[in-house]
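Pair request: fold both.
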Amino acid sequence: MAMRIYFREQPRTLLLATDEYALSFHCVNDTTEEKSSNYTDKSAPDNSAHGSGNSAASRVLVDFTSRETIDITRYRPLSSLPCYGCLGLLNVDGDVFLAVITRSSKVAEPVADIETVYRIHALEFYCVSRATWDFVVWDPAGNPLDTAGGGLMTSGETIDLATASGGGAAGNPGAGFIEHPCGLLRKLLTDGSFYYSNNFDLTNHMQSRSVDPTFDIDGFDEAFMWNSYMISELVTYRSHLQPDEKAALDQSRFLTSAIRGFAETVPTQIGATPATLTVISRQGCRRAGTRYNARGVDDEGNVANFVETETILHTAQFSFSYTQIRGSVPIFWEQDVQLLSAKVNITRAFEATQPAFMAHFEPVVAKYGPVHIVNLLSTKPGEHELTQRYHQHIRQASHGILADQLRETQFDFHVETAKAGYVAANRIIRFLADDAEEFGFFLHDNQTKSTTLEQTGVFRTNCLDCLDRTNLIQQIISRLALEMFFEQQETRPGNDLWIRHSVLWADNGDQLSKIYAGTGALKTSFTRSGKMSIAGAIADATKSVSRMYINNFVDKGRQNTMDVLLGRLEGQQPVVLHDPINDYVLAELNKQKSKFTSSREISILAGTFNLNGFLYEGDLSPWLFPPDSGIQEPDLVIVAFQEIVELTAGQILSADPAKRQFWEHQVSRCLKARGDYVLLRSGQLVGTALLMYLKASEVRSVRNINGAMKKTGLGGMAGNKGGVAFSCDYASTKLCFITSHFAAGMSNVEDRNNDYRTIARGIRFPRGKTLKDHDTVVWLGDFNYRIDLPNEDVRRHIKLQNLEELYAHDQLNNQMLNGQVFPFFSESHISFNPTYKFDNGTDAYDSSDKSRIPAWTDRILTRGSNIKQIAYNCAQLKFSDHRPVYASFKVTVHTVNEPVKEKLSQELYAQRRGYVGQLLDLDGGDSEKLPPPSTDKNKWWNNGGQAARVTIGAPKPNMIVNPYRPANPFSPTTQPDFISRDALASTRTSAYPSYHEQIAAAAAASSLAHHSSSADLQRPPPIPRKPNSLSGTSLHSLSSVLSSSPGEEVPPTLPPRRANTTGSSSSRSGLLDFDTPRDTPLQTFPSSNISRIGGLESHSKGTAGSPSRASSTSSTSSGPLSGPTIIRRAEFPSTSLPKISRSPTQSRHNGDAHPALPPRHSQTFSVSGSSSTTSATQSSDPRFPVSASTITSTQANRSSYTSTTSPALATSTNTVHDDQQLPPKLPPRPSSHGDSGGTTSARPAKLTLSSAGLLDDDEEEEVKSINSSWKALA
């Protein structure tokens, strides 16, 4: 059933619709802001296209409804391509993409006319959150096509697209081809290895599903469903629907499950009866990965390259099915990626591995029944160790709940086929025939619709890679099962069936090999024809070389892409359904987390020791069980070694693990003498080694143990210096341990700092996990930081036990204080002597000719809020030139009871849903009329990057905003919002006094100012008037706002003055800064009185040397400085603080008296000093001329400020001569609230501001800008 994809712009919504139903997607979080990482340069590392841990979780509103309830005319087709299924939603760099299958082909019909399997050939990722990628055509390689010319579009040819998406590579024509953010995912999903079905459950084998046309999403096996991460939220949404809605959603086939592996059906015959033969392989996705990146088992029991393969034979009378499984050896092991060899390393001890081994086989036995293990590993080094450990775990499991459930056959494939060729592989049948007959097969009677037989057990086959040898043996087992079926049915198939069977299994082996190793399978020449040819041998050699290249240079990128698809990258953010009920549930779970979360304290002992290449067979308990540690038996023991081998050229290139194994034995012997400890993991980088031991009783509490290394020697090429790190989950708390060996040398501090930065940034654990992703980090090792004091002084301070003086000169301490290294790390108090450098076997510091300065080179640092240090000391083991250092800790770890949490979540959801009812319909109401929602970063009125603007339209012609309406829109008033021009003119002449009347009223009011408060006088504000002329020049060209036409442009006002935040005067002239916060105000005093107060130097040297423009001012300062001195209030005694007083009295300027305005409109601020007074008068009358020593603020829509200085400050003010001609002050624009915008001066002074020695560079530029603006207006 084909679907179509539609979209609408406001709000941006994608609609996936069939003829009857529609599924809509709408992103409700902020994704419209510009991004700089929308394009991926193919020459750059490809992880940028996979999304970042920094992006936030995207929230999407999903709605399933009948199509007849939707107005489809409000939508437009997004693509002409048909849609065959939805794989889910994915968050990439904060954008939400909808994955839709657009092209597929039918490849298999396990049950004719009932079950159909399709291979995915084309896939589209449609962006839900924005329209950047709409209508862009991509070629199969993932590059955008120039639809006009048919060629590839380079970044320089897609400027419009790049502009719409925030830049990307469009500004760099040489950056290469542009790639879709999901381009690599598209390549992966369309490589021919992904399959889906829309009419049966493809994730389960025939015996687990019924042979009828049912499609139950609830029954999907997530272990084989590769789109489980993308579709999980949609499945959750489906679970919240009503039963009839859920059935309709399933019937519409919107949600699709995809498997990875192989599927193919070929026609054949059984005698004269037509039949179909099908092989389906399902690769597990829980430990999916490439050859060297996914090996062994994880703590949940998932193994690498786990594949379930099913052989199906179908006729009209019956359906036969036989199932086998394959998978990596289920222990913890790895292989180093090397060009010529890959050494097998078993990374966890037997005791620590057994729980994971059991976690793997218990569900396998529960699903398939008894398991017969077919181990094809050889006896060569590496594989032999795996076989031995495998056999030990099988024997151990046979004594527990898996008794009689595991059987084992060891078949060395290479030895058995060395002489007779691959045909000798059939010898294995004699070892398997009995169990094959016992396990049986699945048989369904298609006539009676009943099951005749069931398969009761399974063969689990493995080699090292589970590819070539495994596929050949599984083909033999499959044929054995078919022969048993034909024998039971008493029929003999023709040779055609066996030929087709061999071809199907050869194609199956090729496909699985390409998925895991990058090339087709080896030995397929024999698998297809039953004999090995020369051409087949040459093809196998070619594939081996190709594998070596792919595994070393390509697989890392493929692994990263798989991790993105499966949602396994550390910090990868999912797509979250916008469900108000679910949001409530999450909030409640956070409040009630004590119901399902518990915490406890564990103890950790960490020790570091530079061995100087020596071996020691003595007792290590003074170091590992020190008496002052405060811990009897620590739960976790971390042991770090440096210089475990001599750092020779040969060892640097290829470190010998023998010495590490020696020290593993020594540490284990010491620990087991006090308790039952197991080695969880060990790692070695040339001379640096890290060992992790755990109490046997705590093994089940520790999971996901991973390791990482980073070289820093010789510029990162050699491992003589570097770091080894382990990461693990202790219950639900993430722990990380690192040991490192930094650069040596007294003066090489910066080299050591660089070593730290290289390791901190370069340590990467699987799934992209870094140091910052852990709750607790313990970093220990030989950091090689020294003490910056002469040798004699250091040794003298050691004898005197003056360790504090030494620590004050410790390089590491000082570098941490300066923020150069180990940010957010802490170190406990050092109470022990420097641990380097001693004469071996003695307590004497270095007595050689070099006589190295003693230092604390061996350190232990921690980071985390849940860790508490108990002890920090060194042990007296004297065989090396270092002393071992140890530290003990208590760490709080949390445990989440997932079943209890899930049960509580379901209860809260049901309770809340019953309370609030159903969610609202996305298409209901007037949603299209509403703008997209605003966030703290994006406002709907700024959507699309446009500037904010508001257009006010008058209700009738010849009407303007009422200037008499109060500025506060919530104040009660009878004034209308708009008023006609004629009414405004009549109101102005009748209701308000003229200019001369206002002056007289103001003068009369000033005489009452001494007896009345400002609250007693209520006068309407004066209306600004335009001047009739200036210097005899008519101003008819300058129209006021009241007489201007709507839409007419008004000249811009001057830029506002910047608020003072730096401690200098904001008035630019030494006046009192009234905007300064109360806790640190600035005051101005004559320099003669305050320059010596408190022994402090003044912050300003006045304006000496600055020419004064005042014609009637003089300085009366008695001090040596002519300018003011700016100081902070905190620098004076409280008795000398200036007093600020307010007075309604009129102020006089150079003998010219101006009438005082009513106190409501005029306030005078006075600062009283010892010999001078500084005042600032705030005037609201716009018609007063500006006199000498006065500055008027011209900031639009604010009251004017007139500040007057005392004679002592006259030289620092800006003055204007009385005979100067002044330009007019333009009236302000009317505000949107109907106010006139405040009163401003109609004749402002012609200002030429001077810094007077008080302005910084930025303020000087602002002054120049103001002066330029005034010149332009004049």
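--- second member of the pair ---
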Amino acid sequence: MAGAAETCLERSRDAVGTLVARNTAVLHQCTSQRVTKWPDFVGVERSMLAAGESRGARGDVGIVGGQRVKAAATGMHSMDTTLRGQLAFVPGNPVLPCKAGSASASARLPRVRRHAPGTAGKARRSSAHGGVPVGQRDGHRVLARAADARVQDEKAVTSSDAAVEWSSVRVRETFLSFYEKHPRYAHVRMDSASLVPSDPTILLTIAGMVPFKPVFLGLEERSCARATSSQKCIRTNDIENVGVTKRHHTFFEMLGNFSFGDYFKPEACQMAWELLTTVFGIPTERLAVSVFEDDDEAYAIWRDIVGVPETRIKRMGAKDNFWASGPTGPCGPCSEIYYDFEPARGNEHVDLEDDARFIELYNLVFMEFNRDAEGALSPLKSKNIDTGMGLERVCQVLQHADNNYETDLMLPIIEKAAQLAGKVYQNCDARLQTSFKVVADHTRAVMHLIADGVRPGNTGRGYIVRRLIRRVLRNGRQAGIDGAFISVLSSCALDLAEKAGYTNCREREAFIRSELEREEARFLMTLERGEDRLQEAISDAKLAKQVVLSGVIAFELYDTFGFPVELTQESAAENGLRVDMAAFDECMEKQRIRARAARESLDLTVGAALASFAQSVGESEFVGYTQLDIPSAAVRGLFVQDAQVDSLDEGQRACVLLERTPFYAEGGGQVGDCGILRLGDSQFLVEDVRKESGAFVHIGEMLCGSLKVGDAVKATVNRDLRSRTKAHHTATHLLQSALRLVLGADQVSQAGSLVDPTRLRFDFNSPRALSPQELETIENMINGWIQSGIPAQVVTMSLDEAVERGAIAMFGEKYDRNDVRVVEVPGVSMELCGGTHVSNTAEIGAFKILNETGIAAGVRRIEAVCGRAVVEFASARDSIVRELCGTLKARPEDVVERVDTLREELKDANKQLESLKKKLAFVMSDALLEKTDQCGPADFKFIVSSLDGVDADGLRAAAERLLQKLGTNSAVVLSAVNGEKVFFSGVAGKDAVRAGVHMGKIIGAVAKLCGGGGGGRPDGAQAGAKDASKLVEAQELAREQIRTVFT
């Protein structure tokens, strides 16, 4: 028996070795010929498998390169364990196992939910003893070592538990490695760009191609012919679908490969198909393809080269399958690859828009046309490829998840949120599961946004972050999570981000946590107050049998409580109401009108015509670092209000483009230079300089004479203003260094700056205000560096070298990786900067902080002056002190003490005045007792009257005094006209409240009638209004409402 077993073992070893050698040889031949279909390996000599056939067992069915393979069984358990783990995958030729006797390989990748807790672990443990079973080849189970997810050769589905094997880390790395190491079309792997794009026309990075947009539009030279990336993206246009559908997200990763004038349609289609079917191992019958309705070329490629059956190729219209960068410019057809969840339904009547059956996996954009203003298409000289495959979607497919959320990208956050709520996610109903999905999705989004420098705010990107955080908190509360929780969830999200390679999240962990916790604390307070007011409004609307919630109330919630109108809409919808958005928008517009500055100015910003011209003429030569005047600079172009002209006459305001210039263009926080352009007796005053597509645009006015295109002008920068500006710029660098030393480098990051001849302004992230002592320390530190006369150095180097040496980069700025300008004050400061600077710190003269204030949550601002501006500041302050001394008849050193004395005297006088007002109100209110009304079976008492000339505090005190005299079964509503304002104050005793009196509603109603608003509790409320003409009518309304309750 032992001899027979050894013989069987030897034959098994030989069979497997021969099989691997043969398959490898065939694979090599296939790869060299760039075939798109792998051969069928069924025809292996049956003599190799005698050991398996002798048992008479039928072989399992597997998939080799997308082809169905029938194989004989083998005595796997008798195989020597020395073979385990020694056999490697045949690269590019995965084996997908499926059960013996199955009708088709479509049994793979079924639509099932994620494994129940515990079962996945059992699947892993079953193969952990030596190797990972990867399938069947001609009766032999092939083994491979469990390797790191970053190994490129791990391309096959390596276990029947694909949900475990295809982790998101492995999927991402496999995609990037496939294109980076492609034998013929190797791509350059690009890191994900920031969610804050350099393109000012885009609020956030919404697609994988956004970082490459300038290349596609021809605005920048390409740095490589082919690129691949996993780009983090944010979209909020369909935020209401997040958590509701299976595939909508705010934050997602877009896997993409790009060709800039290199390969085109055939190669893009073949590589995409190879990746999905050969590398990811998705059966071909699970895939379908769409093409643009007129794109016969793409249709033929899929049918004839790739080999997709015509029944699985669908033509679709421009809405779905044609991409354009805008009304004009580059554009082209798309082709999309879909995954089929239900292939058993067959190929007849295939509808790719059936979301229940199909999910779009891979979108290929063929950028081959240019569209002109008339809509005509002409071929591009350089044709490009732009592709995108959502990581969340492909993970859903490969991990056999029911939706994108229940993959390893988000499920850990979901389950942590459910745990905090004391629930098991899998056991929750659909409503709770939706809330947990929203929490997980938005937590990822805000973590990455804050890591990329976006802080919660009320406008732009900041508003998006604030809105997402508030949706996290609201959905968490709805799901049953009590108290603060977002920091706990952010820890989970940070762990996932770090595993994905987003190291910036971990590096900014403290900052992310502090921002989230601060915003959470602020919103929870707002939420409680706003929710009370909202529920009161909803209850009133439902009692009145209304279906519309007042837009004015929605605006009040937004304006007074900071309650997002989206949350108001969601709460209203949950109660069967809709918000009157027209009224809300009207209130918003009135507010904008009130806040808008009532002045008009000439718009000299760069327009479309000038931008197009600037792009066509190319960059201007800037010589302003070393020269402040040049004798001859050719005029390239002239523009008046974005209209190109040939010449300028005296008095015209215009934009002048020069071939070379000493004028610094606004950038990096530094304002543009001022100066003069001269041509004989003609002079053009330069008031500002902007940069457009590398061309310097000089903005100003033709003072005298004329100027025409082609003239050679003398360009002279205002030396005094430049000198002041560069002193302030270098001082800004010193300020940032001092802040980092005093507060801690990890506690300070630049959030913006402004440098001009008169001052500097530096915005920075900080969780708190600086103390006077800290400001004094910073000021003294900077003045010490100035007095030391430290020479400044300016050098150029690669970005990597600069970062390695410790240079600080301004977040959000775009830098050339090969050539950056580094400004260093040795031992003090080193920053990447393109601005102008002093050559020695002594040139700054002196430094003085004017003020330190908060401009947003977590953002502080320091304003300061230096050089001659310090002298000017001191002179202005000295004049103020002299005037105060004269007015107060005090010496300078006694001014503070004299002011404190006057302030105390004023405070005492105000107290006496308030006391007299209250006494007067009491005297006047006692006379109102004669106007007491009674009603109802319990003899309820109430007073509705006026006390003119009394302020709001006196009115409240009078109402409370009257209530004390009337008793607990009474109510008092008083009003007072004070100037143009009307005040209301109402109080009710506890018995009156039990009877149904709600003073908050009564006061709110009467104030509204007089053009105001307000409210409060059932036992007490106040309000203000501005229309005293309706006061009598308002008082009658109050009486009517009180009588209604009492009777």
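Observation on the second member. The domain at 911-1045 is CATH 3.10.310.40 (Diaminopimelate Epimerase; Chain A, domain 1).
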